[in-house]
Design goal:
Blueprint (H helix, E strand, L loop, with lengths): L1 H9 L17 H27 L13 H24 L2 H11 L1 E10 L9 E2 L2 E2 L12 E11 L6 E13 L2 E6 L4 E4 L2 E12 L2 H13 L2 E14 L2 E14 L9
Antiparallel strand pairs: 1-4, 2-3, 4-8, 5-6, 5-7, 5-9, 6-8, 7-8, 9-10
Length: 258
């Protein structure tokens, strides 16, 4: 009998064998029920949200850049900035802009003639100097007449009126040669034209005699014009400095005229 008891005690029981897992994956009906519960919860939440909106619950605020008031404010600020920039350009920066345009512009002399008798037409009166007031009896060593056709280049995109503060000083090799007058002119689309028929007052007769010898011997010579002029554009006027080098063809004999 003791042996029978030992055998009964040593026999395996149901608890000694591994049990199958009891998860939701092992039970499809349980998983479907869980998904159904989630759908029911989401639907209930959506219904609650709709009910809250119907009862006057606060609506989430719209993004600021989608609001009409935002664009109205931006338009007003942009308009103010544009007006301020334009006013600054006209009243503060315009003189600097005008001087910059004058510095980068050029004067190309296409034709130049010298005569010791006043021309019969196209006479100029600039700075109190009248070409008709200088007669042939005047001192030819101190005064002659010059006819010069010039093109203005690279003057900028804006149309403008030019008024020179005559007389304009003329330098040759950094030495004052004399004074001349230039007529008013207009520029537009980056170019302009000057037709000058002007008396030339010699500042230094000795130096001018040396220049005259070189003028007849070289193919071209350079003058530097210095003075001031007014530039009027966009209803604004600025006084700028004139400092331009011009090139004139040489080897021409002054015309004595009759």
């Amino acid at each position: 009998m003791p042996e029978a008891d030992d055998q009964s005690n040593n026999s395996p029981s149901a608890h000694d064998f591994p049990q199958p897992p009891t998860t939701a994956a092992a039970n499809p009906s349980t998983q479907q029920q869980h998904l159904h519960n989630n759908d029911s919860t989401n639907a209930a939440a959506a219904i609650d949200e709709s009910l809250m909106l119907e009862k006057g619950a606060p609506i989430p605020p719209r993004k600021f850049y989608r609001q009409k008031r935002y664009w109205i404010v931006c338009s007003i600020i942009t308009t103010i900035i544009v007006v301020v920039v334009v006013l600054l350009a006209l009243f503060v920066f315009y003189p600097m802009i005008a001087q910059f345009l004058m510095n980068q512009s050029g004067i190309e002399v296409g034709d130049a003639q010298i005569t010791f008798h006043p021309p019969k037409d196209n006479l100029q009166k600039r700075g109190g100097v009248d070409a008709t007031s200088i007669t042939p009896a005047a001192d030819l060593n101190s005064t002659f007449f010059m006819s010069m056709a010039s093109d203005l280049t690279n003057t900028g995109p804006f149309p403008a009126a030019l008024h020179f503060h005559n007389p304009i000083n003329v330098y040759y090799n950094d030495t004052l040669l004399g004074k001349m007058t230039l007529p008013d002119s207009n520029i537009a689309l980056g170019k302009g034209h000057i037709d000058a028929v002007t008396p030339f007052e010699i500042a230094n007769t000795t130096f001018f005699a040396l220049f005259a010898k070189e003028m007849l011997a070289v193919d071209e010579f350079k003058w530097r014009l210095k003075g001031k002029l007014d530039i009027t554009a966009l209803t604004r006027t600025a006084t700028v400095d004139l400092d331009k080098e011009i090139t004139i063809a040489g080897k021409f004999i002054p015309q004595r005229g009759s």
